[in-house]
Amino acid sequence: MIRAHDKHHFYKYMSVETALKVISNHSLRWSTPLKFNDPFDHQIGFTFGFSGPEIGQALFREIEQIVFRGKTDFKEPTLLTQLALGLQGIAGRLPEEAIMKELWEATQEIAYNFPQNIERLHAAIQEHLTHSRVLCVSETNDNVVMWSHYAEEHRGLVLKLRCIDELDNTLLAARRVDYSREFPMFPSLDQYVRHLTGEDPIDLAALSWDVAFTKHTDWAYEKEWRVHMPLLHEPPGDGYTLLKENPSVFGAVYLGCRMTDEVREQILEAVEEHIPHAQVFQGKRSTSSFDLEFEEI
Fold it and tell me: What is the pLDDT of residue 72?
């Protein structure tokens, strides 16, 4: 697996119930985006800096260049490429006015259908991206809000997960989440026109990944990274999948400051049996600030 970052480790917040399964099975729980608490996650589209009429005008000018100036450099021919080359082939035998009329009608139809085409594009991207499993991790283990939301109001725990080159483990492929108030920006008008003509295609599959790694700025406190795994032809199931990891990936365990003594003993027994190499830290409230502190057990 190609290492996608320079991080040594990440952290995973979880409930006690999930943690006992993860520790005993040496597995991490991957989730469908449809289970996420953010209704926008994986279910957004692109921001476009141009309109349908602007596409029509620009596309008309570009194909006009192809027809009357003999452009023939197409990386991936499209239906528009075929139209342009067809008009190019008869340019000397038909009145220019007739050719321009046919060209104008074709480009205006594309301009008219632009909103519907974008809706279909967004629907296809969202359907593809949500039929997946995602592993979400964080750069930090001491965020008070995340302990409240994801670790049973400080009664759960956080696992330190190591990125180990020698193991080629999953977390080497993690990508940082970007935070924004706007949806990802689609390429420029000129780029889109050249995509439609086949002169310079846009890699829409690669571009769609930006959707899976963009969240509203209100979530920035999570400092999230994630690994995305398409399900391809597999059914969605119950929305969760446990995937095995090498035991050495589990580097440390941080116990919540509200964890009961009974649960604490359960966790310590599970750690001793299944990941005895892992360090264990007990969380506690600071006496001088709104911070969490951890002491090794």
Answer: 66
What is the per-residue pLDDT for 64?
85
Residue 97, SS3 per DSSP: helix
Give the type of residue at 255.
L
Q: What pLDDT score does 84 carry?
A: 77
H or E segment to which residue 162 belongs: strand 157-162
Segments of the chain with pLDDT less than 50: none
DSSP string, 103-121: HHHHHHHHHHHHHHHHHHH
**Spacing of C-alpha 293 from chain mean position:** 32
What pLDDT score was predicted for residue 103?
84
DSSP per residue over 20-87, as a string? HHHHHHTEEEEE-GGGSS-TTTT----B-SS-HHHHHHHHHHHHHHHHHH-----SS--HHHHHHHHH
Q: Can you state the percent helix, strand and coil of the chain, rounding each to 5?
A: 45, 20, 35
Domain boundaries, the chain: 9-41+132-185+203-296, 52-127
Q: Quote the pLDDT of residue 71.
A: 67
Residue bearing tokens 């909103």: 115
Cα angle vertex 263, ends 146, 26, to 5°? 70
Cα separation, 182 vs 184, in Å, equals 6
Looking at residue 270, its pLDDT comes to 98
- Rounded Cα distance between 213 and 218, Å, is 14
pLDDT of residue 184: 95
Cα separation, 42 vs 49, whole angstroms: 21
Give me the sign of the Cα torsion angle 198, 202, 205, 208.
negative
- Residue 22: partners with Cβ closer than 8 Å, 6 or more residues away: 14, 28, 29, 159, 242
pTM of the model: 0.88
